[in-house]
Amino acid sequence: MINDFKRTFFNIYQQEPDACYFAPGRVNLIGEHIDYNGGWVMPCAINAGTWLLVRFNNESLIRLHSHNFSEHFTVPVGKNYPKKANEWFYYPLGVIEALQQKFNLNISGLDLYYFGNIPVGAGLSSSASIEVLTAYGISDIFKLNTLPLDIVKLTQHVENLYIGVQSGIMDQFAVTYGQKNKAILLNCSSLQHQTITCNLGDYNLAVINTNKTRKLEDSKYNERVQECNSVLKILQSQINIQYLCDINPTEWLQYQYLVEDKTLLKRATHVITENERVKNAVVALKEGDLDYFGKLMFQSHLSLKDDYEVTGVELDTIIDFCTDHPDVIGARMTGAGFGGCAIALLKKGKEKDFTKELNSFYKEKIGYHPDVYIQEIGDGPTKIF
Hints:
The chain is 41% helix and 22% strand. The protein is an alpha+beta fold. Helix 2 crosses helix 4, helix 3 (126-141) packs across helix 4 and helix 3 (126-141) packs across helix 5 (170-177). It is globular.
């Protein structure tokens, strides 16, 4: 596969690449819409991801091509590139600009070629993958000795200020810190983190793409952020907290009378109970209780559906199917929602039957097929050559 990338690179730029890098996508096992509320999340990196081939040029140009998109882009080397645009190449450009400003880089020119096998708009963090990949690769070729946490913070900054999505830090963190067969337990307020052995035993991690794409910039994602901030301000009038996740479900019962708006009440209820589910999920994994972990996944989806209202008919159809399936012990949407992907713990050896049955069920209700990918929990970014 890498040789095919190299040939394509040569066909585009008439030169061999200097280096090649890979960064994974991610799924969030549990803890959805918690990262910007200062709580606990449990993501992991996956096998699917993005590759980058790169070489220096001496033309004072940054040229970007992708196997996955027809649009390519050339821009003079500088430190003020266009911001908040939808095309794929603004993600790596934002990272390059941020690195230039942070390290005062003297770039003679760069030729970049990207290839990804993450379904775009599926909620598997294709954007974080390309951001972290670019930061990791550029840091390596310029010998910047950038620490992993520096990459996380820089790429989140790009997502927030350059792209205009008010995401938390989880996606970039999961992509950067991924470890094979490990889930990452991350406190999004303190950045305290640890790895949790994720032994799925007789089950595989199935990623199910609704094939309804969504873009965070165009969704109600930022609206949910604003709603949570509204609840936080109300609670801060009476109690000393910095984030919604600073209070537990018992305290929430004591103070929820302060929130008169029913919609805001539901939003906060999801956040606070979901944060507690992550803590319970840690216990389940450490004790090897996959049945309990699966029940927490189903509970998480129900909360995202009823209280946070970010699922939609496509995701709900998949979870309805999984709920009644004898070979699935847990399933939930993953990512921001509004389309994208669900994940399920699926009995090994049942992949073909499950996919066939789901296709029939889903097409009858939605009108087209979903896609099912069996993924392993993988490592973070790496240099290929």
